[in-house]
Every structure is written in C-alpha cells, then in structure tokens.
Amino acid sequence: MSLVESFANVGVGYGIAVATQSVVFPAFGIHVTLADDLAIGAVFTLVSLIRSYLLRRAFERFR
C-alpha cells in the first residue's frame, strides 16, 4: 500500500501543480499552452521526487 500511496501522492501533486500553474501564470502575464503546463508540471514533479528521495536517504543515514 505504500507504493499505491506514493503514486497517489505524486499524481495528486502533479494535478494540483498543473491546475495552479494554469491560474497563477496568467495572473503574472505568463501565457503558455496546456502542453507547456503539463511539461512544466512534470519537471517540477521530477525535481520533487528526487528531493524527497534524497532527504529520506539523508534522514535514514543520520537515524
């Protein structure tokens, strides 16, 4: 179930990121296509996954 939870967390986070970008970007004068929003969301999701993994490894090492 931990794997399912991880996929759900990433999926929900990705959806929230894309939805937020589609609202916030135009408010700052940034206009991109839906495809761009999806790609940007994917990049930030990948960075977030790497960050989470590295932090988890660091905390496990110091535990």
UniProtKB/TrEMBL annotation:
Swiss-Prot/TrEMBL keywords: Membrane, Transmembrane, Transmembrane helix
Superkingdom assignment: Bacteria
Keyword Transmembrane helix: yes
Transmembrane segments: 12-32, 38-55
Pfam families listed in its UniProt record: DUF7220
Name under which the protein is recorded: Uncharacterized protein
Organism: Paramagnetospirillum magnetotacticum MS-1
